[in-house]
Write the structure tokens for this entry.
Amino acid sequence: MLIRPKLLTRYWGLCPETIVHVGGHEAEEFQEYQEEGWGSAGVIWVEALPAQAELIRELVASQPHHAVVEAVAWDRAGVEIDFHEASNTQASSVLEFGSHERSYPEIHRVRTIPMVTNTLENLLQVHISGGIGLLNLDVQGSELQVLQGLGARIADVETIYTEVNVEEVYKGCVLLEDLDSWLSEQGFVRVDIRLTQDGWGDGLWLRRDRVPTSAALRRTRRRVHTSLGKIRRALT
């Protein structure tokens, strides 16, 4: 997470009781979630790669309110799909490398694994029946498909934190403006963002009725727009 949980708590007052973390990798955020008191009512880790899912299980074994789901989240269930495992497993994706190959030449595809997709709407039926305080996505370009797979459960989500792309870091990945547009239709407003010089970053969306109207928010928006402008100029 480019914007650490501690900062999200400080500046946005976040303290989600229930978290769904898709693209759990090795649960790098586990300790920070614990330190900030996040996920006190439950944390669901969704991870596609079996080895990484097992690492998460070992890490959270003593936490009764944590659960690990091994699955490829998508907009439809039952779709046979190729999952590309990378030498740095954090870069693994259902999408092939785009500009990622140029920005990180030391990372390469190790193998392609055939998998069958599922949707968050299906997966969450077993684990969460009510509200979702935070949906955290780290899915390397397939953010929109994962979100669309929530179906009607998108209405249960209060806050979304997700990796974003302002260029095709992965081939065919959803770009920031399209993600903004779709989430706006679902009642969300982007309130914060951090971007790298490699065409990707992280963004934070709140439900429109939860967006603060303080001077602090106006300052943050100015900083966000300045940051986005600098990155776009660097890419042209």
Q: What stands out?
A: The chain has one domain: 5-235. The chain has a mean pLDDT of 92. The first helix runs from residue 5 to 12.
